[in-house]
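Supplementary Methods, section 5.1.

A reviewer requested that the exact input to the structure prediction be made available. We therefore reproduce it here, unchanged from the version used in the analyses.
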Amino acid sequence: MIEVSVEVAAFVRPVAARTGPVHVTGACAPLDEPLRFAAAAMRTRAEHADVIAAVRSMYRRFGVDPTKTRPSSEALLRRVRKGGELPRINSLVDIINWCSLESQLPFGLYDLGHVRGAVGLRLGRDGEEYAGIRKDTVHLVGRLTVADEDGPFGNPTSDSARTMVTPTTTEALVVIFAPAGLEPMVADRALRLTSERIHQYCSQ
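The structure derived from this sequence is encoded token-by-token as follows.
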């Protein structure tokens, strides 16, 4: 599903799934209690120290300081550890954040209606950038980058506005940026649980 370039294959083992048809809602009341419970549990649960260390090491392999440019999973953990709740965006994004928080693996989520052609994971090239979701321009040179025939649209920290999931999304691509040194079953289990939750809360 995702072609991994030779330049990154030694350090990252992405797992991915197409999901759809999905029904994405701006608010999903059945998710309220599970998300509150997940945030509360992660405030006291022991960290997945091995997973966090592996993700940080993956970042450093590509010249990124994970204490300054945090993996999306670690940013979620820091948010809830400070007493915050998981952000609420829409039903599908909320599920992805829930699964990323619990697994401590960075996820990407993309509207396949705005993806063209083959999808690959590679290093960003000179001059490549995109408009991030609710963020300034994301510069990609030398960083892990998900791209299609129209160019880059995602990375483990901040995805693009071009492929963001909205209530009009009917099919999506879920990507977990798993470090290559991590036991494969860790990411596979996270992807399986994510697919189950999407089916439970977002199936048409």
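The helical segments are 6-9, 32-44, 49-61, 72-81, 91-103, 184-202. These observations are discussed further in the main text.
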